Amino acid sequence: MAERFLISAINQFAFYKSLAEKAMIQLSDEQLFYQSNDSSNSIAQLISHLSGNMLSRWTDFLTSDGEKDWRNRDAEFESKQHLTRVDLMNEWERGWSVLFSALDNLSDEDLQRTVYIRNEPHLVMQAIIRQLTHYAYHVGQIVYISKMLLDKQFQCLSIPVGELKV
Length: 166
Description:
Layout lengths: L1 H23 L18 H16 L14 H4 L8 H20 L9 E4 L2 E4 H27 L16
Antiparallel strand pairs: 1-2
Helix pairs in contact: 1-5, 2-4, 2-5
């Protein structure tokens, strides 16, 4: 069961990564920086936050707290206007690479180990679910912002309304 859980989790992470990428590819470079107001996040900020979270959580996943001293979470939400799409996508890929590398190296026995996130203990399986739901939450924001910006030009990422054949 542990092996199936891990395969399923990896597949779900890959699905959410792909979903965000399919939404982002439809946007212009400028749209990646759009904020509806000062208290909302741009897609660029969400990329930075997701990457920062992944680097912190999945680096030395089994042996150190998931909230690393070197992470500056607040900076992830600062303006990213100085970055290019290439910069953002490199940051995006770096985070996902660390995540998938950590997951690929887990054994069935590792899933029963305890890891810490902000000094709070989690079974590895719990930590994976925690991160999967966190990333799905932000990917949903990326898709929503993309749909809002593109309106009718947004290319549906699932089954378009009215096209479900039962």
